[in-house]
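for the writeup, i need someone to sanity check this before i put it in the appendix. the sequnce is what the collaborator sent (i think, or maybe the updated version? ugh). structure was predicted straight from it, no edits. if anything looks off just tell me and ill rerun, i have time this weekend
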Amino acid sequence: MKNTPATMIAMAATALTALPVTAQEAERVLRFAHVYESSEPYQSCAVDANADIMEATDNRLGWEVFPASSLGSEVEINEALGLGTVDIIYTGQLFAGRAYGPIAIGGAPFMFRDFDHWDQYRQSPLFEELAQGYEDTTGNHITSLGYYGNRHVTSNKPIATPEDMQGLKIRVPNATLYMMFPEAVGANPTPIAFAEVYLALQQGTVDAQENPLPTIQAKKFYEVQSDINLTAHITDALLTIVGGPTWNSLDEADQKALDTVLDEVSACFTEAIRTSEEELKSWFEEQGVSVNEVDRQPFIDAVQAVHNGDMASWDQETYDRLQAIGQ
């Protein structure tokens, strides 16, 4: 076919329509921040959904996603929500619990029997009530709860029993409840910012850390730890939160659109993490890492004994309601 001016114009128009929609084409570009790597589904699911939020709001809203702590640590981006310097974040429930204690219960160790228990919790009236309590306290709006994965302990030795963790210096995120599991089994929890964990393990500042398998892969912790011990001590999740100044500046239609699209983002990464968890055990073994099955019951017994102790930021009624879900 001869490339006449008319055909060249048509071809150019076709190419332009095939280009991905960018947030800068929206009237307002929201800043969406998190601490996870650009290679992880938290990032890709959010980036891909920019086109969806633009379509849902007739281009009134788009978002740019900032991964890998580029806008600050998890503590800092939580604080930025209320200041309006960040519009949307992913965050752990224990970080949100700094502002409203009861919401942290979903991130406590051995709080859920299995994935199904957790999945029923996130769709429950109890979670809705806790999310509303957080909003009433902070002004920030929780849209979604998505699966982050079962957290496991990595180390440079096999860990089979709670006694194997005695005196172990283990990195934990900088939120009090992450210390519940290590302290219950006699380890020494050491808060370190997420971006600094690899170097801390490499230099021996800490002996161990704990995270889900996809995160261990993405952050390359397997390069500096010889063993992955399948403790599954936290069925962990990420809250997606829109900052109060941003949420309150939107009309009802755009609020509804944000709720809907961010729920879809959460469902997207939940499915990806579930799939990844199934595949990664054999992948780590291929890298020369020992993946150790663990009898979890002694760990469960040690932690459940302190579930409603001094670290608890929830009341007995909330705890009992959560445990009764699915029973």
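The CA atoms of residues 27 and 250 lie 13 Å apart. Residues 20-324 form a domain with the D-Maltodextrin-Binding Protein; domain 2 fold (CATH 3.40.190.170).
thx in advance!!
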